[in-house]
Amino acid sequence: MTPPPPPTAAAVTDAPTTDVTPGPAPAAAPAPPATPVRGGLLVLVGMLLVAVNLRAAVTSLGALLDEIRDGLGLSGAMAGLVTTLPTIAFAGLGALTPWLVRRWPAARVLVVAMLALTVGQVLRVVTGSAAVFVLTSALALAGIAVANILLPMLVKQHFPHRTGLVTGAYTMALTVGTTVAAASAVPVAHAFGSWRAGLGVWAGLAAVAVLPWVPLALRTRAARRTATPAAAAGPARVRPARTRLGWAMAVYFGAQSLSGYAIMGWLAQLFRDAGYAPEAAGLLLAGVTALGVPVALLMPTLAGRLPTLRPLVLSLTAFSTAAYVGLALAPHSLAPLWVLLLAFGQGAFPLILTTIGLRARTAEGTVALSAFAQSTGYLIAALGPLLVGILYEATGGWTAPIGFLLVALAVQTAAGMVIARPRHIEDER
Questions:
Q1: Which InterPro entries match (predicted)?
Q2: For residue 47, what are the CA distances in angstroms to 7, 11, 18, 59, 371?
Q3: Domains plus CATH for the chain?
């Protein structure tokens, strides 16, 4: 029932002029706004529920990785593969999602995505096979990957005048889900006497997230049937893969995601090896996400006001460098400080998301740049958890894995210097 977002600024300015017509027009129009308001509220609730689920299946696994390795007999390389699956899914299915939305309404796609997440999480906690665990984890992550791409599109479609507010709301929900899953996975597992409970509990939350989208999927059927072929036609394509800026954006996105997923998958294990109890290690991992909330809220404002992004790029690099060196030299005694610095350093994620919008003039350029940067970037990021796992198993310590992350940080900084200067992807075609 909710109309798609207006394609041009002119369309936006036309909307208010229809609301100020004198005479009987206001009296004839009370009914139409009611349905969009109800639909908008349902969409917002559905988006928040989906966002809570977007990282819970990943961070809960990271917090319980040691128990899962023992329970299923996973090798270090296999554990690294499991922690790499999110980036593989986000890269592959992230690129596939626009094709899915062209064929089916977004609400219906999201219903299937949340069902895949629910079923995948249930199946992976009832199996005793390492191979089946990997496959069912991939199914769950496929649902997350599709939902990850759909949420920004739904913001544009249903809340075109409140994009910042709604994006902030679902980002906060995502952060809450990430933090709670990391902090509570071990206590829940201990309370029920099995790591399976610590992972499986999140399937119930994913099932709840399906509910608001079922009526919305049914509503979109009629609108989809009445859509005209002209509405699907688009302007000339922007090809970021043929530009220096596009590749710099992809490398920066990939390098920061590489470190982010390596931290998500292995930081709790690092703190366990340093002498922390499993519960404390999970809380320290959750702290990285929780302390990063204010950074994520401030970063878009700072990036939009500064004439160049170089101060932000270099500051984030300095925070991450200090954190990595500290984790290598004194992982136990100053752990809270390293967690705080990691949280600041992970501000590279909201920075690159903001920069995607800053480096495109048009909606078409923004979509093209976002798709290329994220899909290519996640392919780069897939190396992170896997190589960290291999290096950890080969050396029996954390010096080599942290050295690898420092090299990735240097690459990230070099790409950041390229994207820091203001310009637009359309100008490089």
A1: MFS, MFS_Cyanate_Porter, MFS_dom, MFS_trans_sf
A2: 22, 25, 29, 20, 20
A3: 41-221 (1.20.1250.20), 239-429 (1.20.1250.20)
